[in-house]
Design a protein that fits this description.
This protein has 200 residues and is α/β, with parallel strands linked by helices. The protein has helices at residues 15-24, 32-40, 45-54, 67-75, 78-104, 136-147, 151-159, 164-167, 181-196; strands at 3-8, 29-31, 109-113, 128-133, 173-176. The chain has a five-stranded parallel β-sheet with strand order 2-3-1-4-5, with helices on both faces. α1 crosses α9 and α3 runs antiparallel to α5 (78-104).
Length: 200
Amino acid sequence: MTYIIGITGGIASGKSTVVSFLQDAGYQVIDADKLVHRLQDKGGKLYQVLVEYFGPAILDDAGEIDRPVLSRILFNNPELMAQSARLQNSIIRESLRQAKDQLSQKESIFFMDIPLLIEQDYVGWFDAIWLVYVNHETQVSRLMHRNHYSKKDALKRLEHQMPLEAKKAVATVIIDNNGSQEELKQRVSELIHQDLSTIK
């Protein structure tokens, strides 16, 4: 039986760092964002859907989707953001399901990194859900530093996301990342040893 752990969090919560630690430890991780990027590359299923809906304005000089341009369009128009989600979600879900089924044939334990795991109702896919958590103030500060946003822009980005506090109720494990990266690495190491050793 395959044991599948879902990883979620929020922007600037440190989820990618946790994934990196897991990969360094030898675990396979399906990355939803990377999968979406492949689908949005020229010729991909999402590329076709998005260009048909938004037109050539979202393309760069090479004909690829200009993600920063598309992101600005969506974040400044909630209705377009909702429509974009409707256009893409079924394709993303089916592609993630295929990736999960394929890896289930080869791995006894693996992870799936899905930012919208709770919001898009992937909870039932997993035996456990790990939430990478930071408090709101830390999240705003790290987002400002990482993306060079003003506080206003950082807060606007977070308005479009489910608060991490609300995600706690669904999580099996809460990984507190309010401290240093070394503390985060130690916490992940403890989890791997404590929670996964009995099912390897």
